[in-house]
Amino acid sequence: MVHTPHPSAEPEPNTDAVAATSTAQAGQDRVRAPDLAGLGLDVARPLVIVDVDEVLGHFMEGFGAFLAGRGLEFRVERFALFQNIYRPGAAEHLPIEEGRAHYDDFFRYGAGEMRVAEGATEALRRLSERAGVIILTNAPGQGRLARARWLGRHGLDYPLLLNSGPKGPLAAALAEQAKGPAAFIDDLLPNLDSVAEAAPAVARFQHVADPRLRPLAPSAPTRHTRIDDWDALRIAIADSIS
Ligand SMILES: [Mg+2]
After folding, report:
1. Are 92 and 141 within one domain?
2. How many distinct structural domains can be found in the chain?
3. Strand 203-206 and strand 160-162: pairing?
């Protein structure tokens, strides 16, 4: 997804939201990231950059329930988003653009109902004792407020940045401000590969929260460590930034 699992075969959801202060500089493959200190983070500490959908929250489950409320079926048959939305009994998925409209609506109206991934809140709480934590999500801009509220309600009230497209450039611009090591956690290979390219020193971890998606999610364990259990993931992240 879109971070939600978005398969590479599907277009990235349009997000008019870009990180509050991330601005592509003309002619350069760099972004100007928000100032870590300005976000209340201590640049002398390590940095943990973590995704939301399918990492901190059960996006697919929440989106599926939202679609069911609209009389649609969300079939977890492949690691895809818009290609998994059907009318009941239909053999063909909804047109991609219709799926995208439901996706955008979910961030406006439904994302507040998402369940937190098991162990995620406690893992970040413990990591935050030794590192700065920042949330980096590819949510559409209209979802910013609901997303921030969701994080706050679930004890995940860390600085929130919205991004659009591959996360490497922004993750790199954040990590280079931190004097300590940094780690990045996401469910999607394109984001992990993007960080590997833009910021190879940043430790990378893949996490897929939904047990139905785990066997379907493309992985590259030789490039990015895959850990689907938050307790084990916390320990691995802590090791990587110690
Ligand atoms: Mg995600």
Report:
1. no
2. 2
3. unpaired
